[in-house]
Request: fold
Amino acid sequence: MSCKTFVPFIEVPHDLNSLILLNKKVLFTCLFTAVRDTLFAFAADPQWHLGGKPGLLTVLHT
Reply:
């Protein structure tokens, strides 16, 4: 497949660990939803000439 790929990394500050541990499901859902929405908005912006929809694979690395 001949296409460009981009590998963005999203980091969460260490200071938020204690907050995340209180309710992992809700906060990780919010995090991944925000990442997805941001990447889709970026891909849809004609300024960047991407010409397609992104495919996403998210991984939580601890």
Remarks:
- The mean pLDDT is 86.
- DSSP finds two helices and no strands in the chain.
- Residues 29 and 56 are 15 Å apart (CA to CA).
